[in-house]
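Annotators were shown the component list below and the corresponding predicted structure, then asked to write short factual statements about the assembly.
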Amino acid sequence: MLLECRDVRKVFGDHVILDGLTLDVAEHEVVALIGASGSGKSTLLRCVNLLAEIDDGTIHLDGEEITDPRADADRVRQRIGLVFQSYNLFPHMTVLDNITLAPVHVHGRPVKEAKEQALQWLDRVGLADRSGAYPDRLSGGQQQRVAIVRALVNNPRLLLLDEVTSALDPELVGEVLSMIRDLKGEGMTMVLATHEMGFAKQVADRVAFLDSGRVLEQGPPEQVLGDPVEARTRQFLKRIIEAGRL
Amino acid sequence: MTYQPSTRQQERIAYRRGRAVRSVLLAAASTAVVGIALAVGITGAPGWKRVKESFFDLDTAQKYLPQILEGLWLNLKLLVVCATLALALGLLVAVLRTLRGPVFFPVRALATGYTYSFRGLPLIIVLYLFAFGIPGLRLKGTPDVLVLGAAAIIVTYGAYLAEVFRAGIESVHPSQIAAARSLGLSYRQAMRHVVLPQAVRRVAPPLLNDTVALQKDVGLISLAGPIDAIRAAQIGVAQDADFTPYIVAGVLFVLLALPLIAVTDVVTLRAARRQNAGT
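Structure shown to annotators:
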């Protein structure tokens, strides 16, 4: 297993967000996390990336416990990419500088080499002509594609996507989703929190339904989304269908 | 087909132009009225003749201008040195105050204590303490009064500037740090490449404004002895029993401040425009 989360607990004050959550992700697997707002999807991703400290349980990456307090969090994060709902590009840097920041300053690559690699990526996602632009000159979809490239140039073992299309206008969602589909084709291991049930169905190998801080039900997308076992899952999907999101 | 404004639109344009002309005429008229009233009020005052002689005497002004200019050169040099070092000190203290972890507790406490005490202490008292107190210790290698005075200005202004920098650092959204850390950057790297550049850009206008204030406060160094523009003017005032040299020095200080004030305005405008561009 590439990622193993065991009995993970996370509380904010009196509020239990993750309540003994257990989830495994195999290499090259794409897992979609679904569930209502506040069910713990984003929190789980932040815990895996060590941006949030867990309050119990363990998380292993490649068999190594990353939640060991002696583990070097910076080195762990270098192996895990995280893409945020609100892109979080650095507004004072050009697209190219956003992408090359970590390769140059974290991985110590020569600037020239990092730039070439960044330009290749931008070319692939159709943004080569925007490399010198500042983020506020880009559309939301373009910003999010740059943010994904920024995470990918670190060659992460695992890519975490936190509702990456939720802040986008509907007509811009497609360009980001097709990029994620391409990444799956290349074998990238991904965990994505999403509200796009249709997309989860297309791209995920497995769908995990989170409820009250646990994985209540998981399995192939057709089964979980089409014929769920748990009453809570059915209830959730019914609300989604009523909202016209499936 | 090229676009032709409709007759309704042409009417609107004509009406607005008429209003604009009217506003300009009104502003000119009211300015003239206020100006004349002030001129009549001041020159018509019973003591105007004596004030004119003892504050606006051209001969006295010419006589002391060279000395005052020479003093102003010292002010200018002091301004450059004090502003540079106070900005550096302020940035350093602001960053020290953001350090987390128990190891840094003494550093944090010291930095906090410094900004609390030196923002409260009047500059004049710090100046006296440094310029007269430190030499009083009779230590070997005590620097010149000029250097001690400059140090007093630097530590006083450093405390204010540190708070401005800190406000800038705190204004950078935590998601920016999260994004930097998620890429594997260490806290220091995130601070240096992501937080500080954004923070400094945001607080550039207030920083420059404090520098304008600093540029006149360097004149207080005259209290410790060095002959700057104010001291030179004071000597002239004492010799001729005429206040004109003070007016000369005042005018020169304003002239010296104008470029910096203009730069502050431009930077503030640019910052405002940039903030609006994103949304």
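Statements collected:
1. The radius of gyration of chain B is 26 Å.
2. Chain B touches chain A through 19 residues (CB under 8 Å).
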